[in-house]
Amino acid sequence: MKKIGLDVGEKTIGIAISDALGWTAQGLTTLRWDENDYESARERLKEIIEEHSITEAVVGFPKNMNGTVGPRGEASQVFANWMEEEMNVKAHLWDERLTTMAAERVLLDADVSRKKRKKVIDKMAAVMILQSYLDANQ
């Protein structure tokens, strides 16, 4: 039962997938989309879900540092509901506070250039979201 991890932003969706045993997360891609038009992501997400036999989605849930849910968190809730309805996969919201900053730190420590970091930061954040979910649920 493979899972997909999603770091959902306004313009991009970082995508990671788990191995078949649900032990590790690997970065897959970053999908450009328009948050105001879910159709802009539908086909590619459907292809990935079918190609990798995905049964569950883990959607990053960006809460405020005090635990409250702001506009980005609400957008993630809407996206998770859409995933369940349109992609027919169980969707879990997973607290993603600081994952983008942690991904940035990993890439900085690896001496990745600013230009390359920008290309992979969302995918790396998706890996961190999915891996933390897998670790907590083993």
UniProtKB/TrEMBL annotation:
Record's keyword annotation contains Isomerase: no
Keyword Hydrolase attached: yes
Residue ranges of every copy of the YqgF/RNase H-like domain listed in the record: 1-103
Taxonomy, superkingdom: Bacteria
Protein's cellular compartments: Cytoplasm
SUPFAM superfamilies: Ribonuclease H-like
CDD domains (UniProt xref): YqgF (cd16964)
Cellular component terms per the entry's GO annotation: cytosol
Enzyme class: hydrolase
Keywords: Cytoplasm, Hydrolase, Nuclease, Ribosome biogenesis
One GO BP annotation of this record: rRNA 5'-end processing
EC code(s) of this entry: 3.1.-.-
GO MF entries: hydrolase activity, acting on ester bonds; nuclease activity
InterPro entries tied to this protein: RNaseH-like_sf (IPR012337), YqgF (IPR005227), YqgF/RNaseH-like_dom (IPR006641), YqgF/RNaseH-like_dom_sf (IPR037027)
Main localization category: cytoplasm
PANTHER family for the chain: POLYNUCLEOTIDYL TRANSFERASE, RIBONUCLEASE H-LIKE SUPERFAMILY PROTEIN
NCBIfam families per record: RNAse_H_YqgF
Biological function: Could be a nuclease involved in processing of the 5'-end of pre-16S rRNA.
Family: Belongs to the YqgF HJR family.
UniProt-recorded name of the protein: Putative pre-16S rRNA nuclease
UniProt lineage: Bacteria, Bacillati, Bacillota, Bacilli, Bacillales
Gene: ruvX
